[in-house]
Amino acid sequence: MTSPEENIRTDELILATSAKKLAKRRGCLKCISSLLLPLALGVFTIVITFQQQSAAQRQRIEDRDAADLQRAEDRNASRLQREQDKQEAELLRKQEKDLDKQRYENGRFDAYIQQMGKLLKESNGSIMSSQVTATLARVETLNIFRQLDPQRNVQIIRFLYEAKQLTDTPENPSLDLSTAKLLNIDFRDAAVNEKQLYQLSFRGIFLLNATFIGIEMSNINFSRTKFDTTSFSLAEIHDADFSFAEFYYTSFTSTSFASTIFAEATFENYPRQCQFFILCAL
After folding, report:
1. In sequence order, what are the residues at sequence separation of 6 or more whose Cβ sits closer than 8 angstroms to the Cβ of residue 224?
2. What domains are there in the chain, each with its CATH number?
3. pTM over 0.85
4. Regarding predicted confidence, which is higher, 164 or 92?
């Protein structure tokens, strides 16, 4: 059985050992605490650094994308501006070309009228009275037809018509315009009041896309003339000569005939019943 003194010494030894262990634990905790703060600061610094680097990288990417977008927009704007400048330059060149063409055609038209007026004056109003004058007038007229547009050509036709140079009579034979090629001529612009054409001679010419719609015609000579895509719709034709004429895609819708000759005329791409109607209407 232990004595009280031994028990006291044992308790003191236990207490001393516990105090040492506690002091040791406190030292470890203090050491760990002293290490945790720098470690936490280091980790925080690393995290902040990564975040800043990531933010900087995103900003660089955004800046680069924005720069690329701006460059693309600048290139697109520059391309559009170049295209617009090119279109404006082409339009300007076209306008200048059209103006040059108009000035040229106006000059040629005026020169033709002056020349023909001079010939008419010298021949007392009958160009066909002289073989030389007739040949000169024919060559000049066929040449001018090739150089001018349909609007000016129909003005020339009206000029010759009103000057009685396309009227075929024994006293005043018509100017020979055979082989002339006339495109897109609206003969209503040459007719009197846009409705009447009398004593007109157009033998042996070629007419493409011509219009005689609603015109009253009499004593007309279109023998050996070729008609392509031409309309005589609603016209009134009297004492006309279409002998040996050739018709391609020609319309006679609601056209009336009287004393009209179609001897040896040919019809291509034209309904057979319409040919029969024309022949029966003569």
Report:
1. 178, 203, 204, 243, 244, 245
2. 104-281 (2.160.20.80)
3. no
4. 164
